[in-house]
Amino acid sequence: MFENGKIWMDDAGRSIQAHGGCILQHDGMWYWYGEHKGAENCPGTTRVDVIGISCYSSKDMNSWHYEGLALDVKDSPEGSLIQPENVCERPKVLYNEKTGKFVMWMHLDTPRYTYAGVAVAVADRPIGPFTVIREMQPNRTDSRDMTLFKDVDGTAWLVHSSDWNKTLRLSRLTEDFTDVDGFYASALVDQTREAPALMYRDGKYYMITSGCSGWQPNSALYAECDHLCGQWKLIDNPCEGDNYRRTFEGQSTYIFEKDGKTYLMLDHWKPKNVKNSGYSILPVTVENGILTVKWQATFPEQAS
Ligand code: DGJ
What we know:
By secondary structure, the chain is mainly beta. It has no helices and 23 strands.
């Protein structure tokens, strides 16, 4: 069992380094991918040089085993922007059934976030190694915080903050998930949201986002829409519990399903000591069309 909001340990007693991450289920196993920030901050900054993207595995999420770097900065191809001095954040991984490949997308940037692009990498196994095949600005637009979302019809989407974070964009991926196919839509225009996490429930799409205040917590808001590329509407702060106005001191990164329940992953950033940033996994419910993220002290929840 893990204490929400705190640093989590792996099965070897080392702090889990999987920030801005996602969880994927494959062949009865769970895989947690995220930014490895396990080094000291660069002096006087809130950044840690890029190390790579970690992968942890688990049978039941009661403990996590470190599988190593699924993507190691040392293996970056020549000319790649994936370099220690740059930024490689918020990795998300989907399995493509047609190609049998695991596809990872991540936010790729220069240290001052002026490139605003993505990198795409593929692997034959969930634990990697992932090989970088593309670095770009999707549809020639800037792209910062991002997630991947697989729709009920099997299409996959890159959902990313664009227009200097003012607008969220939903960019459809090619059938093999390794590129954008040119079709995209805008959502929450001029609302300045980031850290998107999406889910679908009973005919509606829901998107939880944070405001844009760097590493500092702010109020999460959720938006809903009948169609993925329809008129998204911001509804309210979904958080319930102490500190709900500051998203329990966290920031959204991904929504996944387990045993018929839905969960939101949060990062609890420690900007001055990023490697000690904590995590939460909290239950998400939709009742009478209202989405709620309830604070609970542990994950998995303690039986009452
Ligand atoms: C907020 C984003 O959500 C994080 O992923 C990171 O890019 C920080 N900003 C950097 O300030």
